[in-house]
Amino acid sequence: MALFVLTGAPGSGKTAVLVTVRERLTGVVVVDMDAFLDAGSALAGADLRYAADHWAAYTALCRQLVAAVLDSGVDCLLLTPLEPRQVPAWPPGEVAWAVLDCPDAVRRERLIARGMTDDEIEDAVRDAAVLRGVGLPVVRSTGTVAGTAERVAGWVRSGSGRRCG
Q: How many structural domains does the chain have?
């Protein structure tokens, strides 16, 4: 089965398009890595959004969840803030990566609306710059949620960016 990994810095729109992407990709399990943050934080005894010393273990847990989905015989789309170098070993098989991205001004507006601090917003803008430099295909998250969800679904349907292992 194929694994599609859509990465994006905070404010890129991953969570915003989640439900609509699920509606457009029947037969594909769509997993938002952030959905497990509260439970993972409870297990770790620390807020994983800020506890960098726990990130590797959290990533390994999410990786194992994705492996279980793929073992069930279906394709999986994982929404995550991680970049390929931060996930050293995915399950064997097809893996495709892309970046969900928006202009920094849009990102700032989205993050201000979430109540993030100036420092958190600037960290997200720096994270976005790093992801832009990784060389992955880019899916734009401007315009409507429906339009962005359709672009994400189109990327998954096309298999764009697939590579082995």
A: 1
